[in-house]
Amino acid sequence: MDVTIHFKEIDHKLYGYVEGEIDTFTASGLREELEAVKITEGLEIELDLSKVSYMDSTGLGIFVAFYKRAVREKGKVKLVGLSNRLQRLFEITGLSDLMDIETDKKVELR
């Protein structure tokens, strides 16, 4: 299975919807999409992971790199809609203490 991501910007806030499996085979596409995001100072980004069915350490690394770039460029990233499984993955790696994660929210793309 592939991974897809769709973006929509509304009022200086970027909403992204990620779907599929994120592993070593699909991660390059996700990485390219996230690297193409133009982050400006004050930009808020919400990524909905509610349709991510699987993620390995490669996926974690991609989100950490994106988070670090956003912080460096004075933007904000929030991950929303994580399943219990994904939430646990972020917790056991300590990333839930570093990143802004909200598990019960989903991004609504109009």
TrEMBL record:
Belongs to the anti-sigma-factor antagonist family. This is Anti-sigma factor antagonist. One of its GO terms (molecular function) is anti-sigma factor antagonist activity. The lineage of its organism: Bacteria, Bacillati, Bacillota, Bacilli, Bacillales. It holds the Pfam family STAS. Positive regulator of sigma-B activity. Non-phosphorylated RsbV binds to RsbW, preventing its association with sigma-B. When phosphorylated, releases RsbW, which is then free to complex with and inactivate sigma-B. InterPro entries: Anti-sigma_ant, STAS_dom, STAS_dom_sf. The keyword Signal does not apply. PROSITE patterns: STAS. Residues 18-110 form the STAS domain.
